[in-house]
Task: inverse folding
């Protein structure tokens, strides 16, 4: 009767440990989903910034061609050339700013990816450890008529 009660107590403890690990896994999955959503938002922002940068680059290219054409055909006055140069400088500055924003978003994406990878690795480690603990407990209970409690159930 005492051995049976000990087995019941051990089984109850294992069930509680398993329930805690399941709760931890649910929390980790939620955290991972949140990281995935964050990554998706960052990707969308990068796509948007990339489109803006490409549009600015095309516009800059078009303005450069227009400037060259005017220079060849009309030998435009210095004021006209100055205005065109000023617009081109503005576009170049905007293009550089967009590239900096995109670089920042890429760095945020990389950071979010590292967080997600760490969460996945931690979840895998905990699951593996729980499985080893459960296997050891099962092996102990089948080979020893008086099983003992797992040594480190909460690590």
Result:
């Amino acid at each position: 009767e005492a051995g049976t009660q000990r087995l019941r107590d051990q089984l109850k403890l294992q069930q509680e440990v398993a329930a805690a690990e399941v709760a931890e896994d649910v929390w980790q999955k939620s955290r991972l989903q949140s990281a995935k959503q964050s990554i998706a938002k960052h990707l969308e922002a990068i796509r948007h910034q990339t489109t803006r940068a490409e549009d600015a680059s095309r516009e800059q290219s078009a303005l450069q061609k227009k400037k060259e054409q005017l220079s060849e055909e009309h030998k435009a006055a210095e004021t006209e050339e100055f205005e065109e140069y000023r617009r081109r400088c503005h576009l170049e500055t905007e293009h550089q700013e967009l590239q900096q924003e995109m670089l920042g978003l890429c760095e945020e994406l990389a950071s979010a990816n590292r967080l997600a990878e760490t969460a996945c690795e931690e979840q895998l480690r905990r699951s593996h450890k729980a499985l080893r603990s459960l296997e050891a407990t099962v092996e102990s209970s089948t080979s020893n008529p008086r099983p003992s409690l797992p040594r480190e159930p909460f690590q």
Summary: Residues 14 and 134 are 8 Å apart (CA to CA). The mean pLDDT is 86. Helices lie at 2-74, 78-143.
